[in-house]
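Morning. Coffee machine broken again, so started the prediction first thing and wrote up yesterday's gels while waiting. Chain of 157 residues, entered below exactly as on the submission form.
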Amino acid sequence: MTILIILFLIFLGILLLLLEFAVIPGVTIAGIGGVLLLGASVYLAFDTYGVIAGIVTLAFVLIASPILVYRFFKGRVGGKMVLESEITAKVGEVDAQLVHPGDEGVTTGRLAPVGKVKINNQLVEAKAITGFIDQEVSVRVVEVLRTQIIVEPINKE
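Came back before lunch.
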């Protein structure tokens, strides 16, 4: 009878760990409960059947549990829960040979403080050096960075 209780505790512990990983991620009661049930099964095996049975149970819990969790997520049901897509987008880089400090252009949208600017017939992302710059305002390049440029409005007085 005790061996059935040990097997049930192992089964329930693994089930709670799968529930923790698949349904409610994070450190919750299901994960803590799963670890406690697995620990209780090992303790019960040591206490009831001795050292050899306890070591066998401990080895089963330490080896079989991770394998079962791994196989669950690689299987048909668990595989649907795993995100396997990759982000392939890249940040648009500024061509430093086309845009230089001192070049002038015009904002195509409001810079609040980041927006798009057309400089040398090239649309690039720009950041205002001071506050906000409205749409269709002439700007001058102050600095060229790898992914954006820093601009200031041109005061035409």
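The chain has a mean pLDDT of 86. Going to sketch it on the whiteboard this afternoon.
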